[in-house]
Amino acid sequence: MAALADQDRFDAWADLMREISNRHEVVTIAKADLRAAINAADDWVNANAASFNTALPQPARTSLTASQKALLLQYVVAKRYQTGV
Amino acid sequence: MASGQLVGQILEILYPAANFAPLSVRTGGSTPAERVPVYLFDASTIEYLDFKVLLRGYGGGGLTITLPWSAASATSNAVRWGAAIRRMQDDAEDIDAAHTYDFNDVDDTCASLSGELSYPTITFTNGADMDSWADGEVAIVRVRRNASHANDNMSGDAELWGIEIRET
Asked: Is A26 close to B75, i.e. CB distance below 8 A?
């Protein structure tokens, strides 16, 4: 697995700011600092992708595609955010 | 017209063919809730909104454009607003031809709460600075958020509530 390309990180940053804007959630940091957080999050995902894969039990680990595993993680993280865990 | 008088009659709000600020609604907190139309200017890409304006009663003192706006989510940092004028001179300016918009800019820090307004102004001196726009003429007034400028560091959308054009 590789880190996102710069344009992809830019797109994620832009999408995140639009979503936060739509929710009218308070943001106090500058947009450059938000971009740095996007970059760091992507670096962390890239560095820990193998560890996440190892954490998945069988048969999910070998049967799910990489895209499906990413979607799985996305849903878990989103639900944790929604429930305030 | 005297200084401080309203001289710009906004005939229509126009969306440029690309990178325009879309219309949205900011819901208020009253009962029943207000539903305020606002134009959302992106934080990652330069976006524009055009106004078709008739200049009426202008006396040559220059213009001051006020841009009331709110932050969609931010409570600190600044936005770089810009305004430029394309005069539609009688039998001289062809809308089918390209025009280079020459922007005057202002950096404005958002209000302390995202639902509050800030009222920055942009001034134009009489003459070439306002494309020599003359009394009785229509012009395209183009507003932009220069999200690519170093001084524009506010996260999230900037919500433009409208514009007001007075003689300086």
From this structure: yes
